[in-house]
Amino acid sequence: MNDALIARLRSQCGGPRDGALLRFSLGSALLGEADAAAAIDELRRALAFDPGYSAAWKLLGKACLQAGQSQAAADAWRNGIAAAAQRGDKQAEKEMTVFLRRLEKPPA
Questions:
Q1: What is the CATH number of the domain that holds 63?
Q2: Structure pTM?
């Protein structure tokens, strides 16, 4: 199912419907298939279309973490917190703050 979804989304890239939502959806589907590297690329493309897209920042952080890129995940969440605060997206801001705090918490 996800393979068909990914293929359908990829077929729209570069066309008139290409944009932040399409790239976010593709990144999310790729992450669902455990392809963190490809998800990171698509989420970065989503953010190139809309740097204030807090959901894309949040998912980018998760993808980076899944790929073993802790610093990149922290950077994504910091940028996402700023974007969410600017747009008034309090829930996304809170979630990314929690993710960042957990990431930065020293091991017990």
A1: 1.25.40.10
A2: 0.94
